[in-house]
UniProtKB/TrEMBL annotation:
<dbReference type="InterPro" id="IPR020847">
    <property type="entry name" value="AP_endonuclease_F1_BS"/>
</dbReference>
<dbReference type="Pfam" id="PF13966">
    <property type="entry name" value="zf-RVT"/>
</dbReference>
<dbReference type="GO" id="GO:0004519">
    <property type="term" value="F:endonuclease activity"/>
</dbReference>
<feature type="domain" description="Reverse transcriptase">
    <location>
        <begin position="469"/>
        <end position="747"/>
    </location>
</feature>
<dbReference type="GO" id="GO:0006281">
    <property type="term" value="P:DNA repair"/>
</dbReference>
<dbReference type="InterPro" id="IPR026960">
    <property type="entry name" value="RVT-Znf"/>
</dbReference>
<dbReference type="InterPro" id="IPR000477">
    <property type="entry name" value="RT_dom"/>
</dbReference>
<dbReference type="InterPro" id="IPR043502">
    <property type="entry name" value="DNA/RNA_pol_sf"/>
</dbReference>
<dbReference type="InterPro" id="IPR036691">
    <property type="entry name" value="Endo/exonu/phosph_ase_sf"/>
</dbReference>
<dbReference type="InterPro" id="IPR005135">
    <property type="entry name" value="Endo/exonuclease/phosphatase"/>
</dbReference>
<dbReference type="Pfam" id="PF03372">
    <property type="entry name" value="Exo_endo_phos"/>
</dbReference>
<dbReference type="GO" id="GO:0003677">
    <property type="term" value="F:DNA binding"/>
</dbReference>
<dbReference type="Pfam" id="PF00078">
    <property type="entry name" value="RVT_1"/>
</dbReference>
<protein>
    <recommendedName>
        <fullName>Reverse transcriptase domain-containing protein</fullName>
    </recommendedName>
</protein>
Amino acid sequence: MKIISWNTRGLGSRKKRRVVKDFLRLENPDVVMIQETKKEECDRRFVGSIWTVRNKEWAVLPACGASGGILIIWDSNKLHSEEVVIGSFSVSVKFALDGCGPLWLSAVYGPNSPSLRKDFWMELLDIYGLSFPLWCVGGDFNVIRRSSEKLGGSSLTLSMKDFDDFIRECELLDPPLRNAPFTWSNMQENPVCKRLDRFLYSNEWEQSFPQNLQEVLPRRTSDYWPIVLETNPFKWGPTPFRFENMWLQHHNFKECFKSWWRGFQGTGWEGHKFMRKLQFVKANLKEWNKVSFGVLEERKKSILNEIANLDDFEQGGGLTPELLVQRALRKGELEELILREEIHWRQKARMKWVKEGDCNSRFFHKELENERGLMLNNPESIKEEILLYFEKLYSGLAGESWRVEGLDWSPISEESASRLDSPFSEEEIHKAIFQLDRDKAPGPDGFTMAVFQDCWDVIKEDLVKVFAEFHSSRIINQSTNASFIVLLPKKSMTKKISGFRPISLITSLYKIIAKVLSGRLRGVLHETIHSTQGAFVQGRQILDAVLIANEIVDEKRRSGEEGVVFKIDFEKAYDHVSWDFLDHVLEKKGFSPRWRKWMKGCLSTVSFAILVNGNAKGWVKASRGLRQGDPLSPFLFTLVADVLSRLLLRAEERNLLEGFRVGRNRTRVSHLQFADDTIFFSNTREEDLQTLKSLLLVFGHISGLKVNLDKSNIYGINLEQNHLSRLAELLDCKASGWPIPYLGLPLGGNPKTCGFWDPVVERISRRLDGWQKAFLSFGGRITLIQSCLTHMPCYFLSLFKIPASVAAKIERLQRDFLWSGVGEGKRDHLVSWDVVCKLKANGGLGFGKIALRNVALLGKWLWRYPREGSALWHKVILSIYGSHSNGWDANTIVRWSHRCPWKTIAQVFQEFSKFTRFVVGDGERIRFWEDLWWGDQPLGSQYPRLFRVVTDKNSPISSILGSTHPFSWNFNFRRNLSDPEIEEFEGLMRSLDCLHVSFSIPDARSWSLSSSGLFTVKSFFLALSHCSGSHPVFPTKCVWKSQVPFKVKSFVWLVAHKKVNTNDLLQLRRPYKALSPDICKLCMRNGESVDHFFLHCPLTMGLWHRLFQLAKMDWVPPRSISDILSINYNGFGLSERGIVLWQDACIALIWVVWRERNARIFEDKARNSVNLWDSIHFFASLWAFCSKVFKGTPLIALQLDWLAACNSFGVV
């Protein structure tokens, strides 16, 4: 189905109607929605003037005078209308469509007046209720949803919030818009552009039409672009073999794999033999899969039918013990099948973006623009054009090799070079394999790393032989070095081939080889890479460069001096690297001939096949470039990019360039690099900028890393716009304004403003949109918040202090998502957010407050500062702020700019210092009296009388103890000590009797919150969280340590807080929707509260009695269900198995009775206590069976006798 929406801005003109008719004839949609017809009537003749009337039907919302009006037309041969609803702002049509149920389409034209928008949203909410579940609404909403939907951005308005609330309340999906970011412009010289038009649809629509694609079409008339929603997929052909990680769960897989692997006999190079073995295994796997798995859905359906038949027998009079066991076994099989299916989809999810892009098989749209500007619109032409493009991209130009002399290359040591060349060990190979992600998308061989990890014992001997051969021959055969290239869009609306980023999927064998080599190379890069490069060098982090850049820009602004920042863009950086130049760099940096030949072997045999929507096309032989996706590539690129730093430094030495000089030490910073992201800092002299431009051109010519000046930008500091424009013209780049997006963070912005944080809020909001299509349980939402939403802002929070209003906004998004789907209508926030944010041990979910997480992340800088004295960022901070009086930290008193990050970092020092202490080495840096190094307080606080009479309160330990044993005790008091002071002095000396000092090692700072003495953000965050608020007793062990599914744990957490929606609580929240508070649906007598329902209800109490009888225990029912969860009854003994099974049984009882209540309310189904106990017994047995402590115990043994299973010794 193809649906077009277009605001034509009137259809009164015959000329305009001809344009529209020609457009529709070319596009041939099934439905067209036109807004602003400005027509009070639309008859057959009028419709025929804008589209053919043959087999067409339509519905109209008349215009009000010369404004408004909606017309929706559809092809009656394809769509049969059943109902039409005309509103004040919309036209909705109910269609019958073959292959799915009735669906609704709504065409809307939103009011421009804010006073009418409330009525607009109310009307759409009414239509949502009418059209549920299959609904699509599209048209001109006359409002944007996000700030990025207006050119230049927009602050958040009430209208935007209302629009976003409407989408979330109706749980509609907002698909990405292709080809262009906006749908309207005012068509002026300096245009205002907005995205006012869109299609939204329900989850059910997405399920019925999973291949939806929304695009902007060319504008022929009007100031609006038409948009189209298509539901038909684009066919691309067969996809290559992919190993399914769920196969590893089959009980017989490893034996079969071992048999196939050892059954292949071959000769030749070890690498070639290894790849042929994988091909042999692949052929056997395909047949084995058909026999062992078949189609997952068909097997699952068969098991479900069998379980349903047994359930029917039970309803007819009960099941025999044999049938009960059979049903339990079938349920066990179902659980195993669901586990395999879950692994299958988890692996698919990891592959989907890499293999197919963000819209399944719609990675490339129906049209793709080639580099000559032609539009390609069929699969074959697109494939051919892509292949030609990459043949050209990876083909190097023939010419002489360039050499660079006269630079300080900082070569690696001979010892390091020798270590790089050493033979490969089995341990090294094993470590590399298990460091690789087991689920990552496979290359041409089709095998994921999970196979090698799980079958290490089978393949290790052959793999060691491959490495031994590579060590001596220095060659990688072509089949091992084959790659698939997948194309990821750099921007969502791109159509040009150059707008896609090529990512290489390499074979599993080459991935292992490259991982081992990259591990060795990583260990020596710090010896040869300049301090201005922050990427892929041990000890350097991405935020170092962002901190430096923000600090020196702020320093330059405050100084009043003129300066420029020049941010460059390398053209296809990885893809254009010259192999000859790389070899020259390796030689100059001291790498051995053997290592250089290994690198040549890894590069010279590379070949590519292009994956177009999962379909492999052609093979391309490369002669230049580094593969994105190859573990070696980032490190090799860093070596090449380092040459640019060396050239710049040489130019500075010769006074041809001058960077920024900052702080009291006048520390010089001319540039910063992070992989291919490079930024320059310069004065405004035209000679210097011309030198920089020439240097970049030379570097590009010799290395292949050419600068794309059209995409490069220059920014001025204390500089007039005219002057900046002249400098931009000199560099052939663009003059732009602040702030700069740099390494994913704003450079030169104000972190105190809300707009600074808009990218974070919008990213979280977009992620939430993507999750709407997933039907998540309460436990699933908790998991996503913990694993994703709480960490999404962390990159910003690691450098900048978040304003309280922004933190509240993010926490509101998290809170609303957590409780979405709970209750009806208005969603119930069952537990207060302050409780939710507490640590799990204190009764919360462990989300934590964003402000506390912010402090903990900023504290990492204070820990790193004294430990990284040689780092560039340390030197810059020291130069700008000076040193703290303790000799370890930077000055924490910052009285100027609110923009600089270090001011907010310094404000954390007071909290940070509470958890630090010093470890005495040579005593040179630790102050004897003022630092915390002995006892729980500084000695000056422990012995205040002595401290008052000390001459030098900042004396280091070494000046008092001396530098040898025994200690010389050089106390310098300004007068003779009084009797109380002498008494205190004697106490001090007794305390120091056991002091041991190691004069051979330096003093160190220790973190008191970790056993290792090393700082962790987590420990700081936990300490800050413990310091805030009260912490009631909570049954943490039973709730979170139990071996049950997470969604069940999450429910029990609510029960422990007494916050589940029992009737008494519903009566308080929404009395008009609650059942009578006097009725419990299980006993039909008493009122339903948490304690009554889960403990004191006669039916529930009978189940508890049965559980305790089975454990052979006498018990007195406690007052509260919380006591059941808190008391250690040890029902099945003190063994680990007994504890696990008892917890599982208690939780299973709570879970089953709650499900029974809901079944009685919503499905009008009821079971007796015997059937309920059967379910409790099954769930507890199954959960225990899946735990580690019962590994090796058959499920049937658990089901037959719990006590015996707890006392037996299975394989644990």
